[in-house]
Design a protein that fits this description.
The chain is α/β, with parallel strands linked by helices and about 325 residues long. The protein folds into 2 domains: about 190 residues, P-loop containing nucleotide triphosphate hydrolases (Rossmann fold, 3-Layer(aba) Sandwich), CATH 3.40.50.300; about 100 residues, Magnesium chelatase subunit I, C-Terminal domain (Helicase, Ruva Protein, domain 3, Orthogonal Bundle). It is built from 13 helices and 11 strands. The protein has a 5-stranded parallel sheet. Strands 3-4 form a two-stranded antiparallel ribbon. Helix 9 crosses helix 10 and helix 10 packs across helix 11. The chain is globular.
Length: about 325
């Protein structure tokens, strides 16, 4: 791993205890130019991790707290009438930043969530008749509480599919919890120094693009994704557990994410293990389970595990 990436880890490590896997995936998102959804119960430092990551990069960062009364205009901006000039002027919203933290995204209704769609997919925003390009890098990092919590609106499939990775944030271990408790008790909070800028991110992305991925590994990625749509063709008797399989975005994102992950490990080529490591993060929000699977208390992660056990590794 390059010294630059190591610097990012050590800066974030000043504030975040443990959670290396989450931080690693956040960096994969930045290097592979993808958006990330983080899910976990409140208090697991999801928001803090994203803010820390943003602070290590010299870019504009905007935190948007999603609430039930939020309007699309609060996100993208609106046209304001100027009576003296007799015309309309565009007032841009907070989405015109480089890193957007959409905090508790599932607390806002669908019309607000869908306002993010154009920005995430097209990297542009339309206000009235004018369309504005968003500056690079542009990345949406959204946090959500599990759906069981009250007062939430589940994200529609089309919205969820725009996220390259969905990360599940888990409780810390006993040692980590002790370290967190002591760190929070300290009077002086550590300050994070920016170690990356947009130019360096662009350079890193160019290197990631050149990371070698063999045709056999690309075939392996496609087989994993196809097995979610037609399990029987791969000798898997799980068709009754899957309502819908993963979209073609899954193959595209798994390919890009595996290259970024290999780069983080300091390699110029992708291994099948890179694909295996990232497959759950890329696929868990793209597989829609049937009622049968839910009745058996199965998760999409269980399905991905079965697929990875079955598909032959090149």
């Amino acid at each position: 791993m390059g010294p630059l990436i190591q610097d990012v880890f050590s800066e974030i490590g000043k504030v975040i205890v443990g959670q290396r896997r989450m931080v690693e995936r956040l960096l994969v998102g930045i290097l592979a130019d993808g958006h990330i959804l983080l899910e976990g119960v409140p208090g697991l430092a999801k928001t803090t991790a994203v803010k820390c990551l943003a602070q290590t990069i010299q870019t504009r960062f905007q935190r948007i707290q999603f609430t039930p009364d939020l309007l699309p205009a609060d996100l993208i901006g609106t046209q304001i009438y100027r009576p003296r000039e007799g015309d309309f002027v565009v007032k841009k919203g907070p989405i015109f930043s480089n890193i957007i933290l959409a905090d508790e995204i599932n607390r806002a209704p669908a019309k607000v969530q869908s306002a993010l769609l154009e920005a995430m997919q097209e990297r542009q925003v339309t206000i009235g008749e004018q369309t504005f390009r968003l500056e690079e890098p542009f990345m949406v990092l959204a946090t959500q509480n599990p759906i069981e919590q009250e007062g939430t609106y589940p994200l529609p499939e089309a919205q969820v599919d725009r996220f390259m990775l969905k990360l599940l944030v888990h409780y810390p271990s006993r040692e980590e919890e002790l370290a967190i408790m002591n760190a929070q008790a300290a009077a002086r909070k550590p300050e994070i120094t920016p170690v990356l800028d947009p130019g360096r991110i662009r350079q890193a992305r160019e290197i990631v693009d050149r990371v070698y991925i063999d045709e056999k590994i690309q075939g392996y990625i496609v087989d994993i994704v196809l097995a979610t749509r037609d399990p029987k063709a791969y000798g898997l008797e799980i068709g009754n557990l899957i309502q819908y399989g993963a979209s073609p975005r899954a193959s595209i994102y798994l390919n890009q994410a595996a290259k970024a992950y290999a780069f983080l490990q300091g390699r110029g080529y992708v291994t099948p293990q890179d694909v295996k490591n990232l497959a759950p993060d890329v696929l868990r929000h793209r597989i829609l389970l049937s009622y049968e699977a839910e009745a058996e208390n199965l998760t999409s992660d269980d399905i991905v595990t079965r697929i990875l056990e079955r598909i032959e590794v090149p």
